[in-house]
Structures are given as structure tokens and as C-alpha cells.
Amino acid sequence: MATYSTNEFKGGLKIMLDGDPCSIIENEFVKPGKGQAFNRVKIRNLKTGRVLEKTFKSGESVESADVHETDLQYLYNDGEFWHFMDPDSFEQVSADAAAVGETVKWLKEQDLCTVTLWNGTPLIVEPPKFVVLNITDTDPGLKGDTSGSGGKPATLETGAVVRVPLFVQIGEAIKVDTRTGEYVSRAKEE
Amino acid sequence: MSEPIDWRPSASLEMLRARADLLARIRDFFRHAGVLEVETPACSRFGVTDPAIESLTTRYTGPGAAQGGLRYLHTSPEFPMKRLLAAGSGPIYQLCRVFRNGELGSRHNPEFSLLEWYRPGFDHHQLMHEVACLIQSLADRDLPIERLSYAEAFERQLGIEPHTATAPQLQACAIEHQIAGAENLLLEDRDGWLDLLLSHLIEPHLGVDGMTFLYDYPSTQAALSRVRPGNPSVAERFELYLSGVEIANGFHELVDAAEQRRRFLDDNRRREAMGLATVPPDEHLLAALEAGMPDSAGVAVGVDRLLMILTGSRHIRQTLAFDAERA
């Protein structure tokens, strides 16, 4: 089993803590001039997303977590799991609702998502930074208003609701920034 | 792809001017006080035995050491400065780079600048007063002075008596005050737990508006200070805190050669128990103490940390022309 000593601690290092995979956010070396040294770390639990603190005695070792990120293509949802495929190896993995979380509202078949795998199982699914989705419902809005001011809510094919300019209509495809949940532009016809 | 090498300094040029100014003002202070500036070897056959401090080592090969000999880079200039006191130097100070293995963080760099000075005839309280005068002369605002015994600090902040509490009681206190992970920590002794409580729960409240001197440490943390018998007996040692940061450590110095030898041996026994390499005790210092060193108090001030506080810097690298990662 691979381990890391506190001397290897740095932001982004993945370690096991109380049975859960965690990522180090911040590592602070604390040492009285003539006393015991400690590493005081801020850690994100990758299963719950919660941030916690923990103090280690310097020189201690902790178990490493087999966690890495990879780009996988979203295939489909079977009602319980979301299925993804590695576009190079064609290997498939399934993510549960906890791993998909809020990302579900941006998931469109064929899109490449960043998936954090722990021992081969998805822990976190992140959508592409920009997605193109069709509008399934929105108020017809004001004819002739092209200023883009004000805006109106629009429901997308994935169920997400974003504010769009008044001139955008049902059936149109739009580009959305998933980090902010904001409308970017109408999608160009391909 | 490798990242481009960052050759530029970690400190701003403005900070380097502030550093030069600070060093000049420190030298002014001691010139006016009639304290002699000295320089002592950075590289020695003898190292520091304290299990909490690790020396960086190197080898010297050449005339006098044909086969090459292990040398320790000093972690403080304490031992040779005490030999100067024994030789009759009178009050002395030194500004120098010192080296400590394994210490790197926002307040630590493996090489850093120490200001160390010794006052024959002073006890630790008299020296605390002089430290306060120096720091006040370097600050641009009035710094109120607080003096707090180690026991008072623990009682005030945590309601626990640090000289008598057992290790399990100290651990329970750490858990009660929510030091995350305290339940799983395996620390060697009571002092490890005291260090945990002090660094995590007490230090952040020390010197918030001015200077806080913590004094009369547990006798088990005497290091090189004399122990004053009593109930409990305490080490005549002090530390200065500014803005929650440890800035200085001082002693009413141990001058008893036999006691000093016992402590060196005891340090090495603890080193062995902890799986650390033992370090040859400084025979020059022991011989000087046997010849007779005047009663003195001495203190070491972390110059980089002091500069951090005076300039409101968050990381020690901001005060160093080139920090360890750029060295």
C-alpha cells in the first residue's frame, strides 16, 4: 500500500482519511522553536465534498488514495446509474447520483466530462465548461426586442433552467457556461 | 513539459530595502548599548543535541582532515558565543544565517537570520526588558507589553495547569477544544501535547496588539536555561510573541558544566529512543563552562519573522531575497 509522509504533503495530494478519499487543499507546517513539529492540513473529502481540518505529527505517514481525473464520454442514464465510456479504450464505468450530483442538469449524451475516479469508480463528475443544449420551453417573449435586456427563463432539454435573452425561442440550441449557469450565445448551426 | 525556472527574487526590492534598514537599526541599537558585535563559526565538529532540532551537515576534507570529517552547520551561534563570554568578552551580539533541517513553511525556511545576544549579569526578566526596548525602537507604533507566565497562559486560555496535567488530560483538552485529529495523535510525552496546545490554541492569541512575553517554562522544556527549584520547579526561559507569531526565545543561561553534560547525554538518549542520529556534545562549550562562564541571560530573535510582522507579510519567503525553493 502506497503511503505519503507529511514531507510530501502539498495542495492536490490525494490521501485516505477515515476510510474516505480526500484531497489536500492547504498544508501548514507548525513548529515551536524548541518543540514538536506538526502539519496542520485543510482537506476536502472527495465523497462528501466537505472541507475539514486535521493535525498530523510531522514525519507521520498516511495512506495514499488511488484517485485520478480522466475525460470520459457520457453515454446514457438507465434510471439509476449514469454510464460513461473512455473514448480510447471503450471501457465503461457507471456513476451513481452522489457522484453526478448537480452535474446532472448539464449532462448531454456524447459530451466529454471530467470524471474523478477512485479505485476505478467515479467519485465526481464535472461537466464540460461549455455545453450546447436545446430549449424545450420558454415564454415566446417580446417580438422585435433584440436588445437582450431583461431576459426570461428557459428550460433546456436536460431540465436545467437558465436566463436567456428575450429573442431566443423554443427549439433553438444555446451555449451555456456550466461554471456560472449563464447563457453565453445562440449555438451556431453545424 | 517542464515549468520555466523562476530566477527572480521572492522578496520585493522594497522589502530588501526594509531588511537592510532593519539590520542597520539593530546594529545602531547595540552600538549605543555598548554591546560588541561578534562572528563565530557557522560550521563545526559539534552539533546541537536537542531532539527537536536537526542540523544540516556537510563534510570538510583537506589539511587537518585528510579522510574528510563530518561538520554541523550551526542552528544558532549559542555555543561559541558562550565560549566568548567565558573568555571575558562582556556583552556580545551576532547577526547571522543559521540552518535547520526539515523546517519549511509560511514561517519557516531551512536557512534564516538570527539576532542573538548575551548580557552578563542579567536574568531573564532583565533581558525581556531589553528585548522590549529593541523591538519598540524598530516598530512604527507603540506596542504595549504583556508578561504572562507559561502557567497563566494555559490557565487563562484553556483552564488547565500545564506543570501538573498528565498526558491523557492534555490530550482530552486538545480533543475538547477541537484540534482535529487529536484523538489519533501519537506524541512522545507531555511536552508534545503541551506543544500541540500552545501552537494551536494559545499562540494565536499572544501579542495580538503588542508584545507578549511568555516566561517560566516547564522544567522539561528547559533546553539550555537554568531550572529554578520550587513547586513546581520552572525553567527560566522566555519567548516573545508578536501577532501570534513566536519571534524570540531567551534563557537565564545554564552555566553549570556538570548539569549541561547531563542534559547533552539525556538529549542523546531521547534521540536514540526516537530513532534519530546522536550528535557529539560540544566539548569546547563544556570545557568553557568548567573554566567558568559569568551568570548571563541570552536571547535569539528571528529576524525574518520580525521583518514579516513589521511589514505585515503573510509568508516568510516575502522577506527573503531567495527562499528555499529558489535557493
Features of this protein?
heterodimer, A: 190 residues, mainly beta, five-stranded antiparallel β-sheet, B: 327 residues, alpha+beta, nine-stranded mixed β-sheet, three-stranded antiparallel β-sheet
Structural description of this entry:
The complex is a heterodimer of chains A (190) and B (327). Chain A is built from one helix and 16 strands. With 190 residues, chain A is an all-beta fold. In chain A, the strands form four sheets. Chain A has a five-stranded antiparallel sheet. In chain A, strands 14-13-12-15-16 form a five-stranded antiparallel sheet, with no helix packed on it. In chain A, strands 2-3-4-5 form a four-stranded antiparallel sheet, with no helix packed on it. In chain A, β8 and β9 form a beta hairpin. The N and C termini of chain A lie far apart (50 Å). Chain B has 327 residues and is of the alpha+beta class. Helix content of chain B is 34%, strand content 23%. Chain B contains nine helices and twelve strands. In chain B, strands 1, 5, 6, 7, 8, 9, 10, 11 and 12 form a nine-stranded mixed sheet that branches. Chain B has a three-stranded antiparallel sheet with strand order 2-4-3, with no helix packed on it. In chain B, β9 and β10 form a beta hairpin. Chain B starts with 12 loop residues before the first helix and ends in a 16-residue tail after the last helix. The model of chain B has no long low-confidence stretch (mean pLDDT 96).
